[in-house]
Amino acid sequence: MNISAASKASGLPVKTVRYYADIGLVKAPSRSEAGYRTYDDVAVRKLVFVRRSRAFGFSIEECRELLDLYQDQDRTSSEVKRIASKRLEEIEDKQRELQSLHDELAHLVTSCRGDHMPNCPIIDYLG
Amino acid sequence: MNISAASKASGLPVKTVRYYADIGLVKAPSRSEAGYRTYDDVAVRKLVFVRRSRAFGFSIEECRELLDLYQDQDRTSSEVKRIASKRLEEIEDKQRELQSLHDELAHLVTSCRGDHMPNCPIIDYLG
DNA sequence: CCTTGACCTTCCCCTTACTGGAGAGTTTAG
DNA sequence: CTAAACTCTCCAGTAAGGGGAAGGTCAAGG
To answer: Residue B81 in 3-state DSSP?
Structure first.
């Protein structure tokens, strides 16, 4: 499989596949004579694993840890759970932050008449 | 006022004040003979305005627009409301995204025993 | 008068996780 | 045989600053 086939099979852009190879996250198992990266099913499965992990918002470094655990038959589920719980807390922190931003901004937007006059509670609040 | 006084008065780091001057968002009104940026109360008010706008998650370019409206006596509140509503929608989009991420990940974390065994529904889901 | 320490300046590199493009080599279809 | 499609490496850029170096400036203390 050349890189574009691996891209299609994994659902990642070609550039991203190449980037993951560059940073040593998911390397191409081999190269052709002309120097083309060659992927197999195992590598594609890793790429998919990373794509899904990234979709959960795990950082590249966390993906690296998760990928290591994915391939480690001697892993303990507690290690995985620790990383996932950490991410879950980050999500919850972000949710709380967004909620308070939302409430404040929604209040301001509601109280702004949005007409042709210059008077504006949003600007007043920011200034 | 030198830059560190403006920094304290505005609540922004010195580096940030300098950066905002560099990109032309809030320029220092003048320079001393030695080339030191000199700020006045008007400039500090703009810095505070930007700090609060950034806290709502407005981008630098949006801050630029808002700052223009802040200083424009002929503005219409509808222009302000349009920008704020756009940001509010982005926040709501992000909230929905985080909510579904949260639900999925929370489910996985809950179902993972987190013990010394390798079996792990989180890894299974990602792989 | 001199020095010391706190300021200030510009400049450049670093961060995240890619994305876009240039220039050059390779492969494949017609 | 050529043109298109594919691949390679390398460079630059993104948002919004942060860190730190090398060097100029200013005020206080001795």
So the answer is: helix
